Amino acid sequence: MQIIDNVIISEQVWNTRFSCDLTKCLGKCCQYGDLGAPICEEEAINIEKNLENVFPYLPLQNQKFLQAGVRELFHGTLHIREIQENTPCPLAHMPDGKTVLCSLHSYALDNNIPLLDVKPLWCSLFPLIIKKSADGWMMNLHIPDFCVSEENAPPVIISFAPLLETIFGKEWIEKVEELYRQENVSW
Q1: ω before 127 within 30° of 0 (cis)?
Q2: What pairing do the DSSP bridges indicate for beta strands 136-141 and 7-9?
Q3: 185 three-class SS
Q4: Are 80 and 89 in contact (CB under 8 A)?
Q5: Which residue, 150, 145, 94, 101, is CA-closest to 123?
Q6: Counting beta carbons within 10 angstroms of the beta carbon of residue 167, is it exposed (0 to 12), middle (13 to 18) or buried (19 or more)?
Q7: Which pLDDT belongs to residue 185?
Q8: Residue 68 burial by CB count (10 A; 0-12/13-18/19+): exposed, middle or buried?
Q9: Whether residue 20 has pLDDT greater than 90
Q10: Please, which pLDDT band fits residue 184 given cuts at 50, 70 and 90?
Q11: CA distance 14 to 18
């Protein structure tokens, strides 16, 4: 385990090299599961505000589904509503007919908007999982069998450094990089 400032990083996170290879996994992380991605109230509001902006990316059936509501409460936690178990997220689109992409992500990229201003944290960082606690943050990793990494991937934290920097700051990322250098880990 590593502790950098108020972030506890599991050994699995620290020692895993991973960078999503979307060409091989085809976005299955946005498809499999029996419950939508967890979101906070602010993220739910952001999604609702951006529905009209992402509708051009979405099939009509998804648009109708989302108009009836984006979120659901499950055991006290907000989630994106799922259309059906193990089907793509209602915010997903498949422009090539096989790769599941996020309409929020596409909208952010197409309009030069910071990703976390539009897309939920959970979705943006998967398979890296960060959770806020009373004392700081905890960082874990869950790589399902359908996830495929690029060859010669960097440490997973480095893969997500630009997003993690928006959360923890540039100094935090520099401390991560320095610790890896001290351990002779290259990327």
Answers
A1: yes
A2: parallel
A3: coil
A4: yes
A5: 101
A6: middle
A7: 83
A8: exposed
A9: yes
A10: confident
A11: 11
> From CA 132, how far away is CA 138, in angstroms rounded?
6
**For residues 130-141, b (16+ Cβ closer than 10 Å) or e, as one string?**
beeeeeebebeb
**Max Cα-Cα span within the chain:** 53
Q: Quick one: tokens of 139?
A: 């960082």
Compute the distance between CA of residue 185 and CA of residue 179 in angstroms, rounded to an integer. Answer: 9
The backbone torsions φ and ψ at residue 63, rounded to the nearest 5 degrees and listed phi first, read -60, -45
Structure tokens at 156: 């997973």
Task: Give the separation between CA 101 and CA 35, rounded to whole angstroms.
Answer: 18
Would you tell me the crossing angle of helices 41-54 and 103-110 to the nearest 10 degrees? 70
> Taking 90 as the threshold, does the pLDDT of residue 109 lie above it?
yes
Flag whether pLDDT at 64 surpasses 90. yes
* pLDDT value of position 154: 95
Phi, psi of 42 (to 5 degrees): -60, -40
pLDDT digits (tens, 9 = 90+) for 141-153: 999 999 999 999 9
- What mean pLDDT is predicted for residues 58-62? 96
